[in-house]
Amino acid sequence: QNMSQCWLFLLLLLMGLCQKEEVCSKSVINSCSDCIKSGPYCVWCQQLNFTKPGEQEAVRCDTQAKLLERGCKAEEILSPPNSDTVTKNDRLSSTFDQQEPVQLAPQEIRLELRPGLPTTFPIHFKRVQGYPVDLYYLMDLSNSMKDDLQNVKGLGKDLFAALKKITQHAQIGFGAFVDKTVLPYTNTNKDKLQRPCDAADKQCQAAFGYRHVLSMTPREEEFKTKVTEQFISGNLDSPEGSLDAMMQASVCGDKIGWRNSSTRLLVLTTDAGFHMAGDGKLAGILEPNDEHCHMENNLYVKSSEMDYPSVGQLASQLDKNNIQPIFAVTKNVVNVYRQLSQMIPKSEVGELSSDSRNVVRLIEDAYNKLSSKVTVTHDNLPENVRVVYTPRCEHAGPPGENRGVCDQVRVGQKISFDVTVTADTCMKTTSFTISPLGIKDTLTVTLSTNCECQCMDPQVANHTHCKGKGRVHCGICSCSQGFVGQFCECSIGDKDEGTLREACKDENGVECGGRGDCVCGRCECHTTESGNYYHGAFCQCDDEQCEKFQNKLCGGKGKCNCGTCECNTGYEGSACQCTVSQEACRTINNTVCYGRGNCKCNRCECDEGYQPPRCQKCLGCQNPCLTKLNCIECLGFDQGPFKKNCTEACSKSVFHQMVDQFTLSSKQCEQKDSEGCWVKFKLDQLVGKDNYWAEILKSRGMVEIILTYIYIRPVAVHTSHASLPAKRFSNFRQHNSPKIV
């Protein structure tokens, strides 16, 4: 017995730990409405005299448990609830009796939600026995499907027999496709366009993109007659225009003959892959697919003018028109279409034999899979609305935000889903629809939010609670003109109340930073949750928001003042996390960071360009050989641009010595001075950024220019002095580069 009691205690303890704690995350609260918008568990106390003198009215906003703990009476607590009202709930149908059946209930619901607070309601689905089926057989008539066409011509009887097992209200339509009749998809030679098949094929129809052959019909003979009239065609490349054909079959509903109340199946049979959006560029077709119907005389007339649709466009139109595709494809492309099926909800893939003999069984299997799997989802949700579906059935999928799934559902079996809706913010009345994929039935959800408080205010114009100078609204005073303050105790006379309140607004325009009350033009700051006071002209400061170190405010080694740590003697750092020390910042010559940075937390924080650990080198600085040349010239040789003010310009940044031979180990500088002579010197950077010791070589080098003149004989000399030797003036050039002497 003791062991049982222990287990019971542990179970209760775990249940208590797993319970979600209700939290009210308050921000700027000036009214009951602000409170309700702050979070799903925020409630408002409208009790008079609930707040203490000088205490912010925002304390009226908290969780119900905390308000009760502070002394607010339960009947004085305001918390707008969620509400849901079913406005249309027709009973689910059992069988199809030529009238519009009801397979989803309810059909309309109105929700009024509190922001952030979820509400859950059930929906029910039951597939009607004998529900009509429309099947559109869309066949690839390229040359490689020749054998398949012969078998399909005798398919009508078996196909109708299979559908009769499902419903007595079945219809079948037929369409065919090849590809766009332009290069590089189809040979555009005039004769080849008229007869694109092999020479051995006696029966061949002209090249085409997509042709609608037979609208939905319940007559087997009509299907057989129309299909028998079809012959193969041809094209050049392997991928076909199947997505073009599927798009037109989806959006041209009146031409195909889809019924309003039916399960719509589109069976695509092919042995090749498919072209998609972007492939049209190969033929110079740049206009995107517009997802509209372009059928004239049963032909897709925009085939050569408009690009193929994208998979996303096709999936959207199939879903919009409640069409469920079945891809009956040969073994060589099964994997391609399985990947396509993953991107198209409510679709199936079956492996077609090389001559299509198994297509009826394939369609039966695919239909059973599609019909036994019920997927409930929604159309485009309004912003800031979330929906979660939880299936309630024998073979239920996991709860999901996008959809709920029940598998292995039998015809006539009733299943349910719990739908949880959450509105994250306040919003105007909006709506969205929920429906099972591939089924016409929908549930319209009309959604609004409840962001206002229905307070029971006393009907007294000048209430004593407000010093006789205002009304009470939701427990707080709404002052008459000329009076302000928590209890309308401040008379502003002829002054403008707005002007007084402006004096209390911070740089962001928030009155007292949302942390105090503006009383007669000055902020009276509130206490923090821990009992300390906000401070500052606009209550902008508190002493609890400083950086922490080892989970202690200011590392336990300082005082927090208005968000900044003021460290105790011997400590430094943004969180007083370091002892004051310069040991690691000291250089060989006992300086700190070479005077080119600050030592903080025993590490050098170098000036721009200088590199840690001790700021000795500067990778991004200008070459001092160039920047100090003018000072070297005036200090060493009393010439150059700084000659007249050399002492003022250079004596504080360059300390020099004239030498016959260098003693410094630094890099030698060799620059041309203002007189064209070469000056050699070495620089050693001292402490600081602009301090150098210079050794200047006493001797300067002159520039030698050697010129060579080569004489050539002129071709002709027209002069009276023809007896003089001919001079050659060509090829005058400077020989070799300047040399130092």
TrEMBL record:
<dbReference type="InterPro" id="IPR033760">
    <property type="entry name" value="Integrin_beta_N"/>
</dbReference>
<feature type="disulfide bond">
    <location>
        <begin position="520"/>
        <end position="554"/>
    </location>
</feature>
<feature type="disulfide bond">
    <location>
        <begin position="474"/>
        <end position="512"/>
    </location>
</feature>
<feature type="disulfide bond">
    <location>
        <begin position="490"/>
        <end position="504"/>
    </location>
</feature>
<dbReference type="InterPro" id="IPR032695">
    <property type="entry name" value="Integrin_dom_sf"/>
</dbReference>
<feature type="signal peptide">
    <location>
        <begin position="1"/>
        <end position="20"/>
    </location>
</feature>
<feature type="disulfide bond">
    <location>
        <begin position="578"/>
        <end position="585"/>
    </location>
</feature>
<feature type="domain" description="Integrin beta subunit VWA">
    <location>
        <begin position="31"/>
        <end position="453"/>
    </location>
</feature>
<feature type="disulfide bond">
    <location>
        <begin position="606"/>
        <end position="615"/>
    </location>
</feature>
<dbReference type="GO" id="GO:0030593">
    <property type="term" value="P:neutrophil chemotaxis"/>
</dbReference>
<dbReference type="InterPro" id="IPR036349">
    <property type="entry name" value="Integrin_bsu_tail_dom_sf"/>
</dbReference>
<feature type="disulfide bond">
    <location>
        <begin position="541"/>
        <end position="546"/>
    </location>
</feature>
<feature type="disulfide bond">
    <location>
        <begin position="601"/>
        <end position="646"/>
    </location>
</feature>
<feature type="disulfide bond">
    <location>
        <begin position="560"/>
        <end position="565"/>
    </location>
</feature>
<keyword id="KW-0472">Membrane</keyword>
<keyword id="KW-0325">Glycoprotein</keyword>
<feature type="disulfide bond">
    <location>
        <begin position="562"/>
        <end position="593"/>
    </location>
</feature>
<feature type="disulfide bond">
    <location>
        <begin position="45"/>
        <end position="61"/>
    </location>
</feature>
<dbReference type="InterPro" id="IPR002369">
    <property type="entry name" value="Integrin_bsu_VWA"/>
</dbReference>
<dbReference type="GO" id="GO:0009986">
    <property type="term" value="C:cell surface"/>
</dbReference>
<dbReference type="GO" id="GO:0007229">
    <property type="term" value="P:integrin-mediated signaling pathway"/>
</dbReference>
<feature type="disulfide bond">
    <location>
        <begin position="197"/>
        <end position="204"/>
    </location>
</feature>
<dbReference type="Pfam" id="PF17205">
    <property type="entry name" value="PSI_integrin"/>
</dbReference>
<protein>
    <recommendedName>
        <fullName>Integrin beta</fullName>
    </recommendedName>
</protein>
<feature type="disulfide bond">
    <location>
        <begin position="35"/>
        <end position="72"/>
    </location>
</feature>
<dbReference type="InterPro" id="IPR057243">
    <property type="entry name" value="Integrin_I-EGF_CS"/>
</dbReference>
<keyword id="KW-0401">Integrin</keyword>
<dbReference type="InterPro" id="IPR012896">
    <property type="entry name" value="Integrin_bsu_tail"/>
</dbReference>
<keyword id="KW-0677">Repeat</keyword>
<dbReference type="GO" id="GO:0033627">
    <property type="term" value="P:cell adhesion mediated by integrin"/>
</dbReference>
<keyword id="KW-1133">Transmembrane helix</keyword>
<feature type="domain" description="Integrin beta subunit tail">
    <location>
        <begin position="625"/>
        <end position="707"/>
    </location>
</feature>
<feature type="disulfide bond">
    <location>
        <begin position="32"/>
        <end position="42"/>
    </location>
</feature>
<feature type="disulfide bond">
    <location>
        <begin position="426"/>
        <end position="669"/>
    </location>
</feature>
<dbReference type="Pfam" id="PF00362">
    <property type="entry name" value="Integrin_beta"/>
</dbReference>
<feature type="disulfide bond">
    <location>
        <begin position="618"/>
        <end position="621"/>
    </location>
</feature>
<feature type="disulfide bond">
    <location>
        <begin position="567"/>
        <end position="576"/>
    </location>
</feature>
<keyword id="KW-0732">Signal</keyword>
<keyword id="KW-0812">Transmembrane</keyword>
<keyword id="KW-1015">Disulfide bond</keyword>
<dbReference type="InterPro" id="IPR016201">
    <property type="entry name" value="PSI"/>
</dbReference>
<keyword id="KW-0460">Magnesium</keyword>
